[in-house]
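Lab notebook, bench 4. Still working through the backlog of constructs that have no structural model yet. Next entry is a single chain of 74 residues. Request: give me the structure tokens for it.
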Amino acid sequence: MQATAYTYDPETRCGSVLLDDGTPVPFDAGAFDAGGLRLLRPGQRVRIELADAADGSAGEPGRRRVTLVTLQTF
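Model written out:
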């Protein structure tokens, strides 16, 4: 799935992306590290993988969370 980088904190390696419908979805350091990136700038197109946060780890149960964020390649 594709998204646009929205926020990123280089100290915590956490941030959020915007889905194409404008929905913000947060990601944690684990998702950032899984993608092998060193830096992310707001506005970059990225490829993401989503999972349901059924365990409540990303806030409310049933919310989506990003499990991988990496640069979009063609």
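Notes after review: The helical segments are 29-34. The mean pLDDT is 88. Flag for follow-up if needed.
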